[in-house]
Design brief:
In the C-terminal section; belongs to the purine/pyrimidine phosphoribosyltransferase family. It catalyses: 5-phospho-beta-D-ribosylamine + L-glutamate + diphosphate = 5-phospho-alpha-D-ribose 1-diphosphate + L-glutamine + H2O. Pfam families: GATase_7 (PF13537), Pribosyltran (PF00156). Its cofactor is Mg(2+); [4Fe-4S] cluster. Pathway: Purine metabolism; IMP biosynthesis via de novo pathway; N(1)-(5-phospho-D-ribosyl)glycinamide from 5-phospho-alpha-D-ribose 1-diphosphate: step 1/2. Helix 5 crosses helix 6, helix 8 runs antiparallel to helix 15 and helix 12 crosses helix 14. It is built from 16 helices and 23 strands. By secondary structure, it is an alpha+beta fold. The chain has two domains: about 230 residues, Aminohydrolase, N-terminal nucleophile (Ntn) domain (Glutamine Phosphoribosylpyrophosphate, subunit 1, domain 1), CATH 3.60.20; about 220 residues, Rossmann fold, CATH 3.40.50.2020. The strands form six sheets. A seven-stranded antiparallel sheet has the order 3-2-4-1-10-9-11. The chain has a six-stranded antiparallel sheet with strand order 5-6-7-8-12-13, covered by helices on one side.
Length: about 475
């Protein structure tokens, strides 16, 4: 995943840029970057943030960078922002998204006269550099950004900074958000709208799908109007979004309360306490507890000073170990208790199985699991949510393969139907393998109702495979 932030100010933008990017640290774990334009031209800093937070790596840079225009990012993939010199002039660019047809686009670039791309470790091409190359194939930055929207299969949200303005483009289908804030002497643009609130900005507008705007310290001008069709990612509310964020007018924390309430409405178990797997499961659990009157409790506490997110390390085995180490049990709140535990989702199942095991070891009588979304059935085609290379990493797909063999792909529709016998038996097999007392997933219709905007505007591909 990743997050981007930009500032166009009549005075120095560096401090706002620094804190605005830092507020996106929950979206990426590998690299951070800042680029500014000032009296000395473009200047940039990029650091690896795998082993320390963005803030600690860039504190020295904010004293050295100078400018009134700036863009930056938190990235799970390529180093960025990039500084580019081309027939369109010099500009800086940062992106968030996923390019599924990258090989085709690279070959097209070679066919059109591009001689080379810089190669990253592992033989990969920097996706942001490829986007810059696509922009440079047109006669203006606006035409180039529109060209990127048409050519990229997947999603691509972009910020492009010239010496006089910032161009901001939300991806064609609006799968990721982009919002603009305003204060007296500047405008900012941000993936997460909460990132600018404490910096003194007020909400100005949320870009629509495919919308492109030109931002200066004095104004925001729409250059390409929003498209009618939108498919914003539903998983932003369920998991990735920060609780204080809102997308399409719907707050993440409130959605999770709604989610927990609707989970409770279909449940029949009577646990002693309700708990959430920190952090993203907590609000869902509060919603469940509020709806039922069952006490909310914290039977384990998340220890975050060294590893704020469990997926930070590149190796899955190390991520599993860290996920286990950072949840510290509270034995007094576990022993002899019937626990109902809500997590945002179940992917492989490894971490939640280990969490359940240590609850039993601490004396829990029962552990009932309630994921806050339906069973994940498909790898995301549109956003870099996971480092997994195969859908067979999903526990659902492994079980379906075991049951159906090579015919599994033809049976997926039935397994996504919560009223089908195959679905019921799949859920029970997951329960047995992960050693839960009971297991009930959120239904897709209830989850969409928890969000509350038109279902046709929401992407649900990872649950039902429908685009």
């Amino acid at each position: 995943m990743g997050g981007i932030f930009g500032v166009a100010s009549k005075t120095s933008c560096v401090q706002d840029l620094f804190f605005g990017i830092d507020y996106h640290s929950h979206l990426g774990t590998r690299r951070g970057g800042m680029a500014v334009y000032g009296k000395d031209g473009f200047n940039r800093a990029i650091h690896n943030i795998e082993n320390s937070p963005f803030r600690t790596k860039f504190e020295r840079d904010i004293d050295e960078l100078e400018g009134n225009l700036g863009i930056g990012c938190i990235s799970d993939n390529e180093p960025q922002p990039l500084l580019v010199q081309s027939h369109l002039g010099s500009f800086a660019i940062t992106t968030v998204g996923k390019i599924n047809n990258i090989d085709q686009l690279v070959q097209n670039a070679y066919d059109n006269g591009c001689t080379h791309f810089l190669e990253m470790s592992g033989g990969l091409i920097n996706a942001t550099e490829l986007v810059a190359s696509l922009i440079n194939q047109k006669s203006s930055i606006l035409e180039g950004m529109l060209y990127v929207q048409e050519m990229v299969e997947g999603s691509m949200t972009m910020l492009v900074m010239t010496p006089t303005e910032i161009y901001a483009s939300r991806d064609r289908m609006g799968r990721t958000p982009l919002a603009i804030g305003k204060k007296e002497d500047s405008y900012c643009v941000s993936f997460e709208c909460f990132a600018y609130v404490n910096l003194g900005y007020l909400d100005y507008k949320e870009l629509g799908p495919g919308e492109i705007v030109r931002i200066t310290p004095e104004s925001v001008e729409t250059l390409s109007k929003p498209r009618e069709k939108m498919k914003i990612c539903s998983f932003l509310w369920v998991y990735y979004g920060y609780p204080t964020s809102s997308y399409e007018g719907v707050n993440v924390e409130q959605m999770r309360y709604n989610c927990g309430r609707l989970l409770a409405n279909r449940d029949t178990v009577k646990p002693d306490v309700v708990a959430g797997v920190p952090d993203s499961g907590v609000a869902h659990a509060i919603g469940y507890a509020n709806a039922t009157g069952i006490p909310y409790s914290r039977p384990f506490i998340k220890y975050t000073p060294t590893w704020p997110r469990s997926f930070m390390p590149p190796k899955q085995s190390q991520r599993n170990m860290i996920a286990k180490m950072k949840l510290v049990p509270v034995e007094a709140l576990i022993r002899d208790k019937k626990l109902l535990l809500i997590d945002d989702s179940i992917v492989r199942g490894t971490q939640l199985r280990e969490t359940t095991e240590f609850l039993y070891q601490e004396g829990a009588k029962e552990v009932h699991i309630r994921p806050a979304c339906p069973p994940l059935m498909f790898g995301c085609k549109y956003l870099n949510f996971s480092r997994s290379n195969s859908e067979m990493d999903l526990i659902t797909r492994r079980i379906i393969r075991e049951r159906e063999g090579e015919n599994d792909i033809n049976m997926l529709d039935d397994y996504t139907n919560p009223d089908s016998q195959n679905y019921i038996e799949m859920i029970d097999e997951i329960r047995k393998q992960l050693n839960f007392t009971t297991l009930r997933y959120h239904r897709l219709d209830d989850m969409l109702a928890s969000i509350g905007i038109e279902p046709c505007k929401l992407c649900t591909y990872c649950w039902n495979g429908k685009e």
